[in-house]
Structures are given as structure tokens and as C-alpha cells.
Design goal:
- The chain is mainly α.
- It is globular, with a radius of gyration of 22 Å.
- The chain starts with a helix and ends with a helix.
- The protein has 2 domains: 228 residues, no CATH class; 225 residues, no CATH class.
- The protein is 83% helix and 0% strand.
């Protein structure tokens, strides 16, 4: 790898750490705050309400993610005009899809007895519908942000885009806390949260226009040809948000139907603690994703192979360390974090941590497949695996409680491991012996001392450059 790629990876890693730290901070503050002001049962209801609109993320039909990959690979070949055509075509298509989905949501909320269907008894039917409307609006407009961040990614400024998004997310969360602390319920909280997120989307639109002059929101470069070309991979990309929704929100609903609202609160908090280890995996994935698109777009398979090997190695190694730490301190933290309203549950946390280990392998490796838009079979298998697991989770929870629900999650992770690793190794033009040897080899360039020295050298170079400019 050249020095510029290494520098981008280091900066990208740092900003991804900030992003994940912001997400973790939100989780750490949100749970005790809601437990204190609303109680455990209402916290469980809020968890169901915030989980349900997640399925509206399908509204962009995967065009945001696919466009990001395509624009990045095009810019790696110097094809700026083609990248703009992709951006404009997907921008207007996503706007159209959001409008249509919002209309359908309003009709469904008007016609259906939503509270009864979701098994919610602590809020009135009207309040449930109002909350879902505002949360749905927030999710729908958030689909534009994926495409906006892709604009930064295609010009290799993805770290800046990640940082900006993290700041906007934190601002929306702080805005949401205000009505909670002031004594308001889910209805007002959802409205404030949605308005804050809509404002953040508009701010991001203005930032992209300011920072990337060749990006425009017109339609002079948009074309049906681009949309048709990207439709198949975009539709396939739906498998990822669908699988994620089934994995997280689907399992919550399964536990809710099997065990009730009160046990959902225990499930959500215990799984949140276990997923602290998963944040390390997401950190590595988000760092290497743009670079994999750039290297593949430029035809540099040596860099593709090296990035894939190192990403899987680091994610597995660090996640194991974090898993051990969370296993040791997580149960105690869970009890205190929830103000004593959720038991420590070391067995439940341990089972959920085992799921994270299996997840870290296939999830990191799958970044290569997704980053170059060769994800059609991967997305299909993921949706099937998580859908099957949700059904198993319901019956396992009915029979064995939360322990059965946690153990059932291993099913989808093992299925994904068996498919993803061979597929990624084949795409990277790698071999199993070479890949496995790389897992056991830890180069000097990745040791903490060498990374710190390289960061110091880069900082000194920047200081010298700034002094030269000032003179």
C-alpha cells in the first residue's frame, strides 16, 4: 500500500472510532435515562416503537449504498461525469421512493389497529400512530444521508463525511433527551427527534454542495439508463437492511410475542451490552470499505487482498479481546446501567457474546463482496438466514426463555460463515493457505508502537507544511 492509502486508513479509522464512540455514548446515556423517567415497561414499548419504522429503510431500495460503491470505483478511474450521473439519477429516484413510501405509511397508520398488532398496551392507539408517523418520517429522510455520505466517499473524504454525520446524530439525540427530562412521553419525544433529524439531513445537503462543487441536485445528468443499470444490485442490497432488521428488530418482536413487553427490556439491554464488542467489527468494516472500492476500481488486486486479510485479522483479534472484557464486566455493568431494574444475567450476556465472535468473521469478510457490488447472492442468503432465525427465536423463547432466544441467534451466524469466507477469498484471488497464514502473521507496521510513530511523523509533516504556507 502507498503512503496516501495508509494515511487515509489511519484518518478513516480515527473518525470511525469517533462515530462508534458517539453511538456507544448514545446507548450508554439513553437506557438509564429512559429507565429513570419512563420505567422498564415503557422503555420496552419505546424499543418496539423505534424498531418498527426501521423496515422503512427499504424505501431507497439499496440505491444509496450501490451508488456509493459505483461512484467510488468510477472516481478511482477518473470518471467524474459518470459519477455525477449516478448521483443525480439515484438522488431523484430515492426522493420519489421516499414520497411514495410516506404516502403508504400514512394510509396504513390510518387503517390498521397498530397498537394491537404490536401487542402494546401502555399507550393509546392514537399515540402509537403519532409516534410511528414521526419516527417513520425520520427514517425515510435519513435514506438520503447514505447517498450524501457517498459523495464524500467517492472523493476519498469519507472520514470527514463520517465525522459530520456523527456530530449530527449526537445533536439529534441531545434534542430528544430534552422532552424526556422535561417529563413528556413518547409522542412529544418522537416529534422532537424527527424534526432534529430532518434538520440534520438538510445541513448535510448544504455541506455536500459547499464541499464538492461538481455535485449538483439537478437532473441534467440523470438518466433511466443509469437507474436500470443499478437496479439489480440495488434490489439485492435490500437483503442487508432486511437481514439487519430481522436480526435486531425481528428478534425483539419475537421475544415480545413470546414473553411480553417486560422481558423485551431485558433482551434489549443485555444485547446492547454484548454488542459493545460488535462495534469493533463495524469500526474495521467502515474503515476499509471505501479503500476496497478504490483498490478494486483501479484494478489493484494486491491491495484488495491485503486489505481483506488485515481487516478480518484485526476484527477477529480485537473482538476476542473485547468479548473477554465484556464477559468479565458486562453483567455487573448491565445491572447498574439499568438502575438495578434488569438482572445482571451473566449466562445471557455470555451467549450473546458467543454470537458476536461468529459474526465478526463473516461480517468483516463480507465487506469486500459488498464494496464492489457483487453482493446479490450474499444479500439473499443473509435475509434467508436471519428470517429463519427469527422463527427459531420465537419458538426457542417460548420453550427456553431468553436463553433459548440468545442461543438461536447462532444459527444465522454459522450459516453466513460457511458462505462468506470462501466467496471473499475467491474474489480477492486469494488462497486458503495464504489467508490462514496471514491470520497468524502480525506485521511490524501494524504494531501499536509503529502506528504511533507514523502518526507522530505525519503530524510533524503537517505542522511543517502549515508553517511553510504561513510564511
Amino acid at each position: 500500500m502507498d503512503e496516501r492509502t495508509r494515511h487515509r486508513l489511519m484518518v478513516g479509522f480515527a473518525t470511525t472510532v469517533v462515530s462508534k464512540a458517539a453511538y456507544t455514548l448514545i446507548q450508554v446515556i439513553q437506557v438509564p435515562t429512559l429507565m429513570h423517567f419512563w420505567g422498564r415497561a415503557m422503555f420496552g414499548v419505546w424499543g418496539i416503537l423505534t424498531a418498527t419504522p426501521t423496515y422503512l429503510s427499504f424505501s431507497n431500495v439499496g440505491f444509496g449504498s450501490v451508488a456509493g460503491n459505483e461512484m467510488t470505483m468510477l472516481m478511482a478511474r477518473g470518471a467524474q461525469e459518470e459519477a455525477l450521473a449516478v448521483f443525480q439519477s439515484c438522488w431523484w429516484l430515492i426522493c420519489l421512493l421516499i414520497s411514495a413510501t410516506m404516502a403508504v405509511l400514512c394510509v396504513l397508520l390510518y387503517e390498521l389497529p397498530v397498537a394491537r398488532l404490536l401487542n402494546l398496551t401502555l399507550l393509546s392507539e392514537h399515540d402509537v400512530k403519532v409516534v410511528l408517523f414521526w419516527l417513520g418520517l425520520s427514517v425515510l429522510f435519513g435514506q438520503l444521508e447514505q447517498l450524501l455520505q457517498s459523495a464524500y466517499r467517492c472523493i476519498t473524504r469519507y472520514s470527514y463525511g463520517n465525522f459530520a454525520k456523527s456530530c449530527l446524530t449526537l445533536a439529534a439525540f441531545v434534542a430528544m433527551l430534552v422532552p424526556i427530562v422535561e417529563g413528556y412521553g413518547p409522542r412529544t419525544t418522537a416529534k422532537v427527534f424527527a424534526i432534529a433529524n430532518l434538520t440534520g439531513t438538510l445541513i448535510l445537503c448544504a455541506m455536500v454542495k459547499r464541499d464538492i462543487p461538481w455535485i449538483s441536485y439537478g437532473w441534467s445528468h440523470a438518466s433511466m439508463r443509469e437507474i436500470k443499470r443499478l437496479t439489480r444490485p440495488a434490489l439485492a442490497f435490500l437483503g442487508f437492511p432486511l437481514g439487519n432488521a430481522l436480526n435486531i428488530q425481528g428478534s425483539q418482536l419475537a421475544v415480545n410475542y413470546a414473553l411480553g413487553n417486560d422481558m423485551v427490556a431485558v433482551w434489549i439491554t443485555a444485547r446492547t451490552v454484548s454488542r459493545l464488542a460488535l462495534q469493533v467489527v463495524e469500526l474495521v468494516k467502515n474503515t476499509v470499505w471505501p479503500e476496497l472500492s478504490i483498490a478494486f476500481g483501479a484494478g489493484n488486486m494486491d491491495v484488495v487482498r491485503q486489505l481483506h486479510r488485515r481487516a478480518v485479522q484485526i476484527a477477529l483479534f480485537v473482538s476476542l479481546i473485547v468479548v473477554v472484557m465484556v464477559a468479565a464486566f458486562g453483567p455487573t455493568f448491565l445491572h447498574k446501567w439499568t438502575l438495578g431494574r434488569v438482572p445482571s444475567s451473566p449466562g445471557l450476556v455470555g451467549l450473546l457474546l458467543l454470537v458476536v465472535v461468529f459474526y465478526s468473521l463473516w461480517s468483516t469478510s463480507s465487506t469486500l463482496v459488498a464494496a464492489i457490488n457483487l453482493h446479490e447472492r450474499l444479500a439473499t442468503i443473509y435475509a434467508f438466514a436471519t428470517g429463519t432465525t427469527v422463527l427459531v427465536t420465537y419458538f426457542a423463547a417460548r420453550r427456553y426463555g431468553l436463553f433459548g432466544a440468545a442461543a438461536s441467534l447462532l444459527l444465522s451466524e454459522i450459516m453466513m460463515d460457511l458462505y462468506v469466507l470462501p466467496a471473499s477469498i475467491r474474489i480477492a484471488q486469494d488462497s486458503w493457505p495464504g489467508f490462514l497464514r496471514a491470520m497468524l502473521h502480525y506485521p511490524d507496521s501494524l504494531r501499536p508502537r509503529e502506528l504511533a510513530a507514523r502518526l507522530r511523523r505525519r503530524t510533524q509533516e503537517v505542522e511543517v507544511e502549515l508553517e511553510t504556507r504561513s510564511k
